[in-house]
Recover the amino acids of this structure.
């Protein structure tokens, strides 16, 4: 069930940006989201059976206990004990390109809020959550821990992150993998402005240990829509590249090039069973979280 | 051919052609810097479209630049001109001499004004194009201006002054002097340093003035001066009619004697003129009129009859009902009307029957219509005895016909009469004796005979004498100048009085002589008077001359001559612009004569000695009409009429005109009469702006296509 209009403001990145504390923002988002959702949707990710309860409309029929139905002619749902040993790793891009904002929040701010919210959500489910920030290489690492207290450590790391440098997935993911001992869920949050080949090779390292991988691509709206009208000198944030051109003239070609780029990622990620989703910095955070949650089911 | 611009100021607009390049450069400089993460896609996109985009941009810039260039060129109105297109915009300064045809034919009315008005309108449009560095002068073609001598034309930079001068010009009544006008134009242009020199002639290009024109007669002229001849005219031959000439049908014009004048009317156009009113006015009073139809291109004689009430000078005019060229609708003439001539005929041999009287034939010859009183000459016949009572001074001529002798007193009276200017005619006959006549009329103090008589001669039977010698140069005998001289020979002379040939050499002059050499008619001068001696009889006693047809005109002419009556024909008319030669006796050299023109304006001239006589030249015959000359002891008049050639409005062929200019550069074109103000010398200017405009349109279409689709 989608959030109501009154709830929407909780997930507007611009509104959230006004909340100084990232941890608080994460809670705000997740609690707000969970308030609007039926509990039954999200209980029972783990594998240990706990008890039965009465079926209520909206429950997943996969969890209906057919045997109990045969015995008692009642619809009951099997409930499970949540697993506590799931390890999640958030890999957050801190390259220079993530510092871009057209209006509202920067890609990094959005990525941070998304990462914090995901972390909170997972910590709330008793999972252990770790964090890597990276650009050319891994810059900061927070080891996975469980417990809501751990959110502060994660938020602190995110808030203290410095942006700069180029993205280099091969090095980053290889080095990150060296630090991940146990398999788990790996969530990469980046604008993916690197060579797709390098990303794929990097992800192969992750998939090597049978990790589950989710890639969230964060782009600014202007990067997706290219709405510029005036003669512009475009200067790269990571390299010494620049080009002066009339945006109106090249817009179609730009969008085509971007689409080709996206398609290359999608194709490669699909081939490696990697979940992929694109968010612009204007996308309400709940949508991103719902996308995550639905994936988790 | 050269390229010129009518609005050259717009050529500054060519600078606008740099605008697309400037805008391009400014845009590049003004490119807003933006730090952008996805530059790799921008670069990739830019690389993909770079070639096509640059080509498109280049094409657009070229098209826009060209469009601005062509737009500026269109606004500047480019024209392709043959060398010397008139005051064409742009180009080096022009010195222009405008020759304005002010001849009579330019007064032809067409539409709102006359041809000269149209020429003026055209001139104004040219002067309006005058730039500060151009110069222009105006030369009217009239041979004689009303103001007198023509001033040397000077080039000026102020077109308005010329417009004022042109506004004062009116069509004259004379011809155009193209030679003089062209010489003046070349002279004016020679003084200019302008690199382009042109002559513009605005004319109706009708016949008059061109036939005698020849560019070779201009002498050595600048061959680089371009000549434009613009014709203002309608059809090839515009409608016009005029009085070609006027002739007097009577021998002598006298008061109260019906006189016939024959005017020849001429229709110079190709269409007939119906019901044309032709009127005769004498001294401003209409005396006769005719309504006639004039055939196309033909002549028609029209007879007017008039009886002058008073002797003396009369001014007449034949008037036609007005047509589009009114200046030639009148023909002026001046006529001297004689008073009656009184002749006293003394019959020395009167008979009971008039037919047998000595003066019967003579008196009828002098006054053929005696009863009708139609003759100028009024003879009175008396006998010799009646002479005593006659008042001689009342008669201009006295005739003594076969009078045997006269008494002393009568001879004295007669002598005084002749000496004081009277005229006397002797006819001899059966009663005249040579000795008596010699004693009384020759060898005496009252000498009246020009020569002494010798003896009577009698022709052998069947062998009469005939008149064989005629002094045809004599004013009274001009009539017998050629063919009529033969008629005189038909008279037969059987008897005559021989005269002394020695005396003849000293005193008289034989005007007529018989075939034996003896004189028949001798003229002598006595004091201020003249004496004529017929050596034969006035009747048929000694000859049959009185029954011949030549008798009457001879007698009449002799009496008119003796009486001083005026010639029996209209004097030739002068053309407007011709000079009048005024001749007087030598004794008047140094004295003044006054010439009064038809408007009554007098002008004094001094007579200059010229051989045995005195002479003055009057060259201001600028108006048609009657001019009076007074002074040098007499008054006379002469008539001036418009040149007949100016009435022929037929176009002078362009090909012939071009030939007349030989090697000189000349363009000849016609001006539409309906819109003279937009006329240009047609053959030498080609407007290019429509082509430029089409090019501009094409460029804009291409620009639109390239900008939208490429």
């Amino acid at each position: 069930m989608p959030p109501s209009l009154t709830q929407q403001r909780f997930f507007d990145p611009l509104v959230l940006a006004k909340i100084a504390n990232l941890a608080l923002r994460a809670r705000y988002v997740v609690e707000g989201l969970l308030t609007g959702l039926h509990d039954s949707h999200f209980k029972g990710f783990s594998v240990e059976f706990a008890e039965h309860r009465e079926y209520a409309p909206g429950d997943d029929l996969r969890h209906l206990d057919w045997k109990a139905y045969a015995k008692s002619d009642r619809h009951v749902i099997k409930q499970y004990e949540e697993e506590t040993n799931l390890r999640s790793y958030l890999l957050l891009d801190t390259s220079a390109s993530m510092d871009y904002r057209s209006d509202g929040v920067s890609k990094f701010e959005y990525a941070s809020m998304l990462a914090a919210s995901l972390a909170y959500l997972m910590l709330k489910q008793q999972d252990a959550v770790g964090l890597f920030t990276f650009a050319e290489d891994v810059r900061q690492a927070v080891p996975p821990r469980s417990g809501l207290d751990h959110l502060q450590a994660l938020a602190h790391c995110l808030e203290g992150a410095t942006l700069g440098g180029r993205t280099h997935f091969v090095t980053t993911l290889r080095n990150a993998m060296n630090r991940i001992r146990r398999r788990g869920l790996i969530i990469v949050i980046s604008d993916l402005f690197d060579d797709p080949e390098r990303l794929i090779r990097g992800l192969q390292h992750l998939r090597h240990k049978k990790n589950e991988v989710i890639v969230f691509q964060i782009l600014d709206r202007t990067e997706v829509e290219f709405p510029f009208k005036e003669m512009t000198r475009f200067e790269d944030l990571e390299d010494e590249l620049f080009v002066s051109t009339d945006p109106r003239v090249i817009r179609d070609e730009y969008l085509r090039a971007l689409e080709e780029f996206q398609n290359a990622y999608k194709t490669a990620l699909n081939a490696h069973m990697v979940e992929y989703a694109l968010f612009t910095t204007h996308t309400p955070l709940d949508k991103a979280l719902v996308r995550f949650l639905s994936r988790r089911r | 051919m050269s390229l010129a611009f009518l609005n050259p100021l717009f050529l500054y607009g060519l600078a606008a052609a740099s605008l697309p390049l400037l805008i391009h450069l400014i845009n590049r400089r003004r490119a807003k810097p933006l730090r952008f993460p996805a530059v790799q896609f921008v670069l990739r996109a830019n690389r993909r479209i770079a070639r096509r985009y640059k080509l498109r941009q280049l094409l657009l810039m070229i098209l826009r630049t060209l469009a601005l260039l062509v737009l500026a060129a269109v606004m500047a109105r480019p024209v392709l001109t043959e060398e010397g297109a008139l005051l064409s915009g742009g180009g080096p300064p022009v010195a222009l001499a405008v020759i304005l045809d002010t001849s009579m034919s330019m007064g032809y009315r067409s539409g709102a004004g006359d041809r000269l008005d149209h020429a003026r309108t055209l001139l104004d449009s040219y002067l309006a194009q005058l730039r500060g560095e151009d110069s222009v002068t105006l030369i009217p073609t009239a041979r004689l201006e009303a103001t007198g001598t023509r001033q040397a034309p000077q080039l000026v930079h102020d077109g308005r002054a010329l417009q004022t001068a042109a506004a004062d010009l009116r069509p004259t009544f004379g011809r155009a002097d193209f030679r003089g006008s062209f010489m003046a134009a070349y002279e004016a242009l020679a003084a200019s340093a302008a690199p382009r020199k042109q002559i513009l002639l605005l004319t109706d290009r009708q016949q008059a003035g061109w036939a005698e024109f020849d560019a070779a007669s201009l002498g050595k002229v600048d061959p680089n001066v371009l000549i434009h001849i613009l014709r203002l005219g309608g059809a090839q031959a515009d409608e016009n009619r005029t009085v070609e000439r006027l002739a007097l049908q009577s021998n002598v014009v006298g008061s109260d004697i019906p006189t016939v004048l024959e005017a020849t009317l001429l229709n110079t156009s190709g269409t007939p003129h119906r019901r044309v009113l032709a009127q005769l006015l004498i001294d401003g009073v209409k005396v006769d009129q005719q309504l006639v139809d004039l055939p196309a291109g033909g002549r028609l004689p029209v007879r007017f009859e008039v009886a002058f009430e008073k002797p003396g000078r009369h001014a007449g005019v034949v008037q036609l009902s007005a047509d589009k060229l009114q200046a030639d609708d009148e023909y002026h003439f001046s006529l001297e009307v004689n008073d009656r001539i009184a002749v006293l005929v003394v019959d020395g041999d009167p008979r009971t029957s008039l037919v047998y009287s000595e003066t019967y034939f003579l008196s009828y010859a002098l006054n053929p219509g005696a009863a009708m009183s139609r003759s100028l000459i009024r003879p009175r016949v008396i006998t010799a005895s009646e002479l005593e009572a006659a008042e001689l001074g009342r008669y201009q001529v006295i005739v003594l016909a076969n009078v045997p002798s006269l008494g002393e007193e009568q001879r004295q009276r007669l002598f005084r009469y002749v000496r004081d200017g009277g005229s006397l005619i002797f006819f001899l006959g059966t009663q005249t004796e040579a000795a008596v006549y010699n004693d009384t009329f020759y060898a005496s103090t009252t000498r009246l005979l020009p020569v002494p008589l010798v003896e009577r001669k009698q022709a052998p039977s069947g062998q009469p004498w005939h008149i064989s010698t005629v002094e045809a140069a004599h004013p009274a005998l001009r009539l017998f100048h050629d063919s009529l001289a033969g008629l005189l020979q038909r008279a037969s002379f059987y008897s005559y009085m021989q005269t002394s040939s020695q005396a003849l050499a000293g005193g008289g002059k034989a005007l007529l002589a018989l075939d034996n050499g003896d004189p028949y008619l001798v003229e002598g001068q006595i004091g201020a008077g003249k004496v004529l001696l017929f050596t034969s009889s006035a009747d048929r006693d000694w000859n049959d001359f009185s029954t011949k047809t030549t008798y009457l005109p001879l007698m009449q002419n002799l009496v008119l001559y003796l009486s001083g009556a005026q010639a029996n024909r209209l004097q030739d008319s002068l053309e407007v612009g011709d000079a009048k030669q005024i001749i007087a006796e030598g004794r008047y050299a140094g004295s003044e004569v006054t010439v009064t023109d038809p408007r009554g304006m007098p002008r004094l001239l001094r007579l200059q000695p010229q051989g045995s006589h005195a002479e003055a030249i009057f060259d201001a015959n600028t108006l048609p009409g009657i001019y009076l000359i007074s002074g040098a002891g007499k008054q006379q008049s002469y008539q001036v009429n418009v040149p007949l050639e100016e009435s022929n409005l037929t176009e002078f062929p362009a090909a012939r005109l071009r030939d007349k200019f030989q090697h000189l550069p000349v363009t000849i074109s016609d001006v539409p009469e309906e819109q003279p103000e937009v006329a240009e010398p047609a053959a030498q200017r080609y407007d290019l702006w429509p082509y430029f405009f089409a090019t501009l349109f094409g460029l804009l279409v291409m620009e639109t296509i390239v900008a939208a689709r490429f």
